[in-house]
Amino acid sequence: MCVSLQLNHDTDSFLALTTDGINFLLSDQEICDVINKCHDPTEAAEVIAQQALQYGSEDNASIIVVPLSAWGKHQSSPTVYSMSRNFASSGRWA
Description:
alpha+beta; 2 strands
């Protein structure tokens, strides 16, 4: 399958490639929120992979975060990775 996307250098800050071990437990919005709070792509990938493992991922939990032109423009202020949730309403337990 081939997918083509047009990048906007003013607004597109990253590309996140994830495996199902992450997507099964974290929503796209949760992943984007964490990445926007991180100072660099390596930190973002580590935080997300660790969070998926803490949520009980039983599959490959891999992520690559590719910084794009607008990296850092949309970062939230303090770096707090609050991803608490009710497991009954998430991924594996839904």
